[in-house]
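We modelled the chain as a single entity of 376 amino acids. Its sequence is:
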Amino acid sequence: MRAAVFKGAGVVHLEDVPEPTVETADDVVIEVEACGICGTDLQILNVPPGHPATLGVVMGHEFVGRVSAVGSTTSGVAVGQRVTVDPELKCGSCRNCRAGRPASCEAVRSLGIFGDGALARYVKAPAAAVFPISDGPPSAVAALIEPLACVVNGVNKGNPRPGESAIIFGAGTIGCLFLAMFMRIGLLFVLSWIVGLTAPLFSVLGDEFSGRDLILILGGLFLIAKATHEIHQKLEGETGHASTQGAAASFGSVIAQIVALDAIFSLDSVITAVGMVREIPIMVLAIVLAVLFMMWFARPLGDFVERHPTVKMLALSFLLLIGLSLIADGLGQHIPKGYIYFAMGFSVFVEMLNIRLKRVGKPVKLHDDYRPGEGK
């Protein structure tokens, strides 16, 4: 089989290597469905290397696949089952493993680093490191389960408290997941503060405004401004071309806008949660599940919206609707969420009917800020 083999600092070759086979009673051979390239892989290939690795090892440790063969004593997984793997193989017998600290195992063997990994058609792992998953998540998303597990474990180990600060190095996969997780959990832990911002700060024409009102109004204005700008850009803006000039500034601007939008939507959902649940642990669990949901469905939903420009316009109009509801709430005119969700749901239903009935003809092409492949 063909595999990506580490040959030394800065060198990886695509070579023919033997397919792994069941050799011990608890071996599991997995046919790889998708495998990611981790920051550790890049560190291994740096010159000089930033992380040690065994020469001649097959690289790749963030992956998903299906079981193709199992050992005689293997339980919990079966041939044909979709699985993911903990690539850090612990010995289970050293003093740290016996003391319940497997992350500090003295004889850990990392797949893709010190043992053959998954940048190949097949990979082998012990049954204890193999975990079944559903068929729902797309391959490219399911391969991120291992880094997401690192994030969840890191949040649990860090045990952030209200008022504490957290610093995140890097805006890669794990950094962005940490950012999303910390932002939402942090907002959950300040629920009492948000709810308590009802004391009047000032009044205008006899109407009193509190800190909570100002947060809602400013958040709503941001959403309306952002949606209006995007609608104009998509319909009447000029299509740009890919270029490296100003890339750093553009990247920083994009990250800042994502963080702002994420914070506003999180704030709205947190305020809504006040009247639904009182137990913080349940809310934290809901946030973790929400991040998983976003990972599973972000790509297919994004691809669908890209193929149907009218859906993109509808989504931007939803931003306008949500922004208006936030402003109205901040001005003391509460609009029941059920009305808003019904209007959005009915609009989506009508649009799905339109898409189904009008599959002929060429769809409108929206303008893009950047068109790849045409720049210098």
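As a brief sanity check on the tokenised model: The chain has a mean pLDDT of 78. The CA atoms of residues 23 and 366 lie 56 Å apart.
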